[in-house]
Write a structure and sequence with these properties.
Layout (H helix, E strand, L loop, with lengths): L4 E2 L7 H4 L10 H8 L3 E5 L4 E3 L7 E7 L2 E7 L2 E8 L4 E2 L1 H6 L6 E4 L3 E7 H10 L1 H30 L5
Antiparallel strand pairs: 1-2, 2-9, 3-8, 4-7, 4-9, 5-6, 5-8
């Protein structure tokens, strides 16, 4: 597993985090409590952030660079999404406590902000109100993503217009 370093330059990530749904509705004090839990990881081109089948350990936010998220099944490869600055990923696996179903790879030199599972557990013990707000925001974000997936499936299944 990649070693992460503590986030020291808090000012550089506030504009990014303030736009991310899972950090919405937080007071400045709550946001700063979250900021103290964050770490940074640097990735070279073609370096995996995580791979399908690995245990999830973090939630990730792209700070700089570009990450490709893909799903594979045998010979089939589905390029799921290109993740850019401000995109959050790894939520579903970490919250569901199941192994990653996708692979995330840096396609250019990238820097990611990470929130570890252990930091979440610590937050739950130290500030249950903030933890609850964060989990409610995560649930809303996952519900939005599920709705988009449903819409894509329905669009794919509709008969083509003549």
């Amino acid at each position: 597993m990649k070693a992460f370093v503590p986030l020291l330059d808090i000012a550089s990530v506030i504009p990014i985090l303030s736009e991310i749904a899972i950090f919405g509705g937080m007071s400045d004090e709550q946001l700063h409590a979250i900021l103290r839990c964050l770490e940074i990881g640097l990735y070279a081109v073609q370096e995996p952030i995580f791979e399908k089948g690995e245990e999830p350990t973090h939630v990730y936010v792209v700070k700089r660079g570009k990450i490709e998220l893909s799903i594979t099944d045998g010979e089939i490869v589905l390029e799921k999404k290109s993740l850019m600055v401000g995109d959050c990923f790894g939520l579903a696996s970490l919250m569901a406590m199941h192994r990653h179903t996708a692979t995330a790879v840096a396609v250019e030199p990238s820097e990611v902000i990470v929130l570890s599972r252990s930091a979440l557990i610590r937050l739950q013990k130290e500030d249950s109100r903030l933890f609850s707000l964060l989990m409610m925001n995560v649930s809303r974000e996952l519900a939005r993503r599920l709705k988009l997936t449903d819409e894509l499936l329905l669009k794919h299944l509709r008969p083509a217009e003549a």
